[in-house]
Input
Amino acid sequence: VDRSSRIGVEAELAWQLSPTLGLSANTMLLRARINAFTDEAAAVTYTNVKPLLTPALLANAQAAWNPRAEVEVTLSARHVAKSQLANDGNDALVTPAFTMADLGAAYTFSLATLRVQVQNIFDATAYASGYTDGTNRYFFPVATRTLLATMAVRF
Output
């Protein structure tokens, strides 16, 4: 793509509500355009279209609670706006917007931290990416509700 433009803003906020509870959030708003894109196979030029896989909005928020020094509980959410699957501006060929939430807990022992996470706790339908053949949409899905346990050992 010879000529394109992107203009946007990012913001981040953190707030320690109490010694044990903190909130944080960040967001990105973006206006991205391709001035002219020529589909060589179809011999068609599209002008002023959104670039593929470039959502106009990304937003994240997290609450972290530390009732004791060795315990942390987190709740986080993220939103991703729809994005184009091709550089042709066809609003029927997009990845759908989605919002997901995760819940986690961690306990730190003297030399290790055990973390348990439930990702996508509300079992939202979400797609990380995708593509199109010009008629149909094909997606790469995000995992459904998932339980993860990890142990980090320091030595």
